[in-house]
Amino acid sequence: MSAAELFSLPFMQRALIAALFTGLAAPAVGTYLVQRRLALMGDGLGHVAVTGVAVGLLTGTSPTWTAVLVAILGAVLIEVIRERGHTNGDVALALLFYGGLAGGVLITGLAGQSAASLQQYLFGSITTVSATDVLITIGLAALVITTCVGLAPQLFAVSQDQEFARVAGLNVRFYNVLVAVLAAVSVTVAMRTVGLLLVSALMVVPVATSQQLTRSFRTTLGAAMALGTLASLGGLVIAALAPFGANVQPGPTIVLLSLAGFVVTWPIGAWLRHRARINEPFASDPPIEHQVTDEHPHDHGPDCGHAAVEHGDHVDYVHDGHRHAPHGRHYDEH
Amino acid sequence: MTPIELTDGAVAISGRPILRGVDLRVETGEFVALLGANGSGKSTLVRALTGLRPLAHGQLRLFGTDLDHFDDWQRIGYVPQRAGATSGVPASVWEVVASGRLTRRRLLRRLSRADRAAIDDALEVVGLSDRRRDGVAQLSGGQQQRALIARALAGEPELIFLDEPTAGVDVPNQLALAEALRELKLRGATIVLVTHELGPLAALVDRAVVMRDGRVAYDGAPLTDHEVHDPWLGEPHTHHHHPRQQRHDHAPHVSSPLEGSP
Ligand SMILES: Nc1ncnc2c1ncn2[C@@H]1O[C@H](COP(=O)(O)OP(=O)(O)OP(=O)(O)O)[C@@H](O)[C@H]1O
Ligand SMILES: [Mg+2]
């Protein structure tokens, strides 16, 4: 089957739409989670949502809706525990996570379903989404994206400094719960794409990648959303175009592609930061005394290989930990 | 309307009484320096006055409104006592300062021209205009502190609380901050400043309040940095007339247990 034929198949088009919206929504919430240093929150909510899916299987209702409900409950509970500031809040969260996963597996068994039926939620099954599922995904993802972008100034302030935000008159508790609920919703949105166990990757990895290269919050958010979309669409396409017979699952492919993006970006980011540090202008105070360098082996210039750093009205060449400033025929130590 | 009226305020942290019997009334345009040793309750008092710590007892009125009903938060600015301004995601200096303008912004509205001007002004005042696009994480500790001051100034508050804003800030920038606070004061703002060293801000202070072990030990005319730690401070009718002991001997001496670190 040619690529053109493949992409004209309805199930593939549905999968592409679902991937697009998931890729946009998950990193949008993920940015705020990372900003609050709660990068693993998505993981926790994913575990909790397993119970939700199992409840859906047991009661014969749509697992998507039961997962949303249970994940939101879990999110609010986590927020309450966090707000109470229990010293062992960390442990309480862990209990909730494991409870969610164990409960889910247990209830699935009770429902008389095999682990296989749970598996499509654990690891994703984007190519089997129905038209209704796609509509739900679009609706929920659009809700997440508009909230994350529209309320960006408020969510940024609350995530940056809660106390300041409170004195600024923001209802911090409302925004905290809002972020938790958005996280829960996007976990469920991403459930069909990458699966509950890998959800957090799509929320966190694009953010980690984009912040290698960015300095402002807005560009981090925008770039994370772009990277998330690239990874989820790219991963799906790679999986679909894999040679006939090879069983390449879209969920893990998307996550690995996203991670590959991080692996490629990280050294670039490290190099850019290093270069920015080297080239940052020196404070323009005049040197303490006029000190001429020892006999100098070569002339500094654009091609000498030593970093030229602005220092007031001239440049200093960084040479073996010294700063050499051209002065007439010799160099001064600055 | 009186900006701050706290009567018989008490604060307990996890059941342990920290502030007791604090009465504080600050009038419009006053510049109050809140002084005292480490752990004497200065930050706790500021946090109570900004509503961050609930009062266990007593009554707080801000601008004549009971705290429970107060919602004029754009009139209040706050510079928390904090080591840095960073979070888990990069944020530019401009973005951090702009978040101080939220009090005056309506939901889902873009920044108005007045908002941008106020943000630019605040950056100018703390001398960070040329670093507005840099990430806050790339700033030094003192520069981050200055960004937090700018964030509070951006909201153009009428009552501003600064909790050790000059900790780690060099003298030229303390002078710049003093200039900014003088400007705010001229515009009629009320200022409550927590500090261990007044430095260039000393000239602005109208009134000193000294905390000791969760109570107000002194409330009156400005003091020098040394007088604050005078063990006689706060005993009625002694501190005005009591000749201050001169201790210029070089032998080590036992200091009063109430005395904080210098
Ligand atoms: N979060 C907290 N939990 C428990 N005790 C606290 C907490 N915050 C402050 N305290 C206690 O309250 C008392 C007053 O603390 P506070 O931070 O107000 O002191 P401070 O005067 O601001 O000191 P510093 O000069 O060090 O900033 C201290 O004894 C401290 O131990
Ligand atoms: Mg303090």
UniProtKB/TrEMBL annotation, chain A:
Gene Ontology annotations for the cellular component aspect, listed alphabetically: ATP-binding cassette (ABC) transporter complex
Keywords of this entry: Membrane, Transmembrane, Transmembrane helix, Transport
InterPro entries: ABC_BtuC-like, ABC_TroCD
Pfam families per UniProt: ABC-3
Lineage: superkingdom: Bacteria
Membrane topology: Multi-pass membrane protein
Compartment(s) of residence: Cell membrane; Membrane
Keyword Ribonucleoprotein: no
Gene Ontology biological-process entries: response to zinc ion; transmembrane transport
Spans traversing the lipid bilayer: 54-78, 90-111, 131-152, 221-242, 254-272
Family named by the database record: Belongs to the ABC-3 integral membrane protein family.
Protein name: Zinc transport system permease protein
TrEMBL record, chain B:
ABC transporter domain mapped to chain residues: 4-238
Organism listed in the record: Nocardioides szechwanensis
UniProtKB keywords: ATP-binding, Nucleotide-binding, Transport
Protein name according to UniProt: Zinc transport system ATP-binding protein
InterPro entries: AAA+_ATPase, ABC_transporter-like_ATP-bd, ABC_transporter-like_CS, Metal_Ion_Import_ABC, P-loop_NTPase
Family in the record: Belongs to the ABC transporter superfamily.
PROSITE patterns linked: ABC_TRANSPORTER_1 (PS00211), ABC_TRANSPORTER_2 (PS50893)
Top-rank taxon, per record: Bacteria
Keyword Nucleotide-binding found: yes
Any one GO MF annotation of this record: ATP binding
Chain intervals for the UniProt region annotation (Disordered): 228-262
